[in-house]
């Protein structure tokens, strides 16, 4: 039995994602594809465009067999934390033999060399990294400068390459038996916002929807052309009903959260300087996006601010992100202590029995049965997922005027 694992956001699911799943099934001969997918919030620190159950259903309709939720503390984190959580989750299923990920660079050996170089963190590398950071470079740009190899620096300038390198690093740190395999990214670039390409990026689709809140039939057809045909009816319904969220839909709840404390130092991704900057400027808050723009500077990237604000909204603290380090290594079971099902296909149904047999952590079908299966530490992590889903549900209800079931009554796909 061949089982391929994919770590994804599907924000939203598009033709490039469908291509990756087809590649796993048709070219790699996968019997099953298991996806570790972000839930209600994403790595950018913003809510996912569509709710997690719709996105899981879209993946299943396009060939995935089982979709598991990546805990929100990892889903909203930096690339290294995101990758480590995703790898741990798939490893704990006990069935995945291949980790398939997209990258701009198709050279797996080069990606591995960079991952190994970064993991060494020699004194010379650390000194160059500090120098670049002090010079105002973002962490990603500083790391590219510190590696002192023009070809590698070019690879590190691409977002999917960065994630690919972090997946390789996570596989090594967790001593995983999964075999890595990279698939060169097809179509538009990660940050490309145009829909002109045959395979537009998720960013392009989100920007198009944001720029066309009242779409004509022609504009809707243009957007749907970037979505697999099997999903057209679902996506049209979601758009028609207004069931989609953007960063600024968090503004009201975030503004309230910003007034509730006098110290954001212990918030994940924050520090003393960021906390003070937020406190000094929160009286100028108007919206999520405008506040990020206000706070960003040459040494504080928009993406970092966005994640900090998301973590304030969701009350995710540094202590909630359990990561391996030199003094206190953690194994995959501690990092991802449960497998939360978002949906499975008819073909994927046998996977549930196999995971119960071979998996290393409990398989959770509903929060209702979790307390008897999970440790207090694992329940704390699950409670963060439930709270994040409740926040998303509240924002969606406020926007649409519709009722949406909570995590205890919602059925998975």
UniProtKB/TrEMBL annotation:
Role description: Catalyzes the formation of N(4)-acetylcytidine (ac(4)C) at the wobble position of elongator tRNA(Met), using acetate and ATP as substrates. First activates an acetate ion to form acetyladenylate (Ac-AMP) and then transfers the acetyl group to tRNA to form ac(4)C34.
Residues engaged in binding ATP: 7-20, 102, 160, 185
UniProt family annotation: Belongs to the TmcAL family.
Domain of life: Bacteria
InterPro entries: Rossmann-like_a/b/a_fold, tRNA(Met)_cyd_acetate_ligase
EC assignment: 6.3.4.-
Known catalytic reactions: cytidine(34) in elongator tRNA(Met) + acetate + ATP = N(4)-acetylcytidine(34) in elongator tRNA(Met) + AMP + diphosphate
SUPFAM superfamilies: Nucleotidylyl transferase
Keywords: ATP-binding, Cytoplasm, Ligase, Nucleotide-binding, RNA-binding, tRNA processing, tRNA-binding
HAMAP family listed in its UniProt record: TmcAL
Localization terms from the record: Cytoplasm
Species of provenance: Roseburia lenta
Gene3D superfamilies (UniProt xref): HUPs
Name the UniProt record assigns to this protein: tRNA(Met) cytidine acetate ligase
């Amino acid at each position: 039995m061949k089982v391929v694992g994919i770590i994804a956001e599907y924000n939203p699911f598009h033709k490039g994602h469908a291509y990756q799943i087809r590649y796993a099934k048709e070219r790699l001969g996968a019997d099953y594809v298991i996806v570790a997918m972000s839930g209600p919030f994403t790595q950018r620190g913003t809510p996912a465009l569509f709710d997690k159950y719709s996105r899981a259903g879209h993946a299943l309709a396009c060939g995935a067999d089982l979709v598991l939720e990546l805990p929100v503390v990892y889903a909203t984190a930096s690339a290294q934390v995101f990758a480590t959580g995703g790898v741990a989750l798939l490893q704990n299923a006990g069935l995945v033999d291949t980790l398939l990920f997209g990258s701009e660079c198709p050279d797996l050996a080069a990606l591995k060399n960079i991952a190994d170089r970064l993991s060494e963190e020699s004194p010379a590398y650390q000194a160059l990294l500090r120098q670049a950071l002090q010079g105002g470079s973002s962490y990603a740009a500083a790391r590219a400068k510190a590696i002192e190899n023009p070809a590698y620096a070019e690879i590190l300038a691409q977002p999917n390459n960065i994630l690919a390198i972090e997946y390789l690093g996570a596989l090594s740190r967790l001593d995983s038996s999964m075999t890595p395999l990279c698939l060169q990214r097809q179509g538009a670039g990660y940050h490309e916002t145009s829909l002109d390409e045959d395979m537009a990026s998720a960013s392009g689709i989100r920007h198009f929807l944001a720029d066309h809140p009242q779409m004509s039939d022609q504009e809707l057809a243009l957007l749907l052309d970037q979505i697999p045909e099997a999903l057209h009816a679902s996506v049209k319904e979601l758009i028609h009903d207004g069931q989609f969220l953007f960063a600024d839909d968090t503004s009201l709840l975030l503004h309230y959260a910003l007034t509730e404390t006098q110290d954001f130092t212990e918030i994940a991704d924050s520090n003393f300087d960021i906390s003070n900057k937020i406190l000094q400027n929160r009286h100028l808050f108007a919206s999520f996006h405008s506040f990020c723009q206000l706070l960003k500077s040459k040494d504080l990237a928009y993406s970092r601010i966005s994640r900090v604000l998301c973590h304030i909204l969701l009350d995710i603290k540094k202590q909630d992100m359990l990561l391996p380090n030199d003094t206190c290594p953690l194994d995959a079971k501690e990092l991802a202590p449960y497998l939360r099902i978002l949906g499975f296909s008819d073909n994927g149904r046998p996977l549930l029995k196999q995971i119960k047999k071979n998996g290393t952590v409990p398989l959770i079908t509903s929060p209702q049965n979790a307390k008897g299966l999970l440790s207090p530490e694992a329940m704390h992590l699950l409670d963060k997922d439930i709270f994040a889903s409740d926040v998303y549900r509240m924002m969606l209800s406020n926007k649409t005027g519709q009722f949406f079931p909570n995590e205890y009554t919602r059925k998975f796909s």
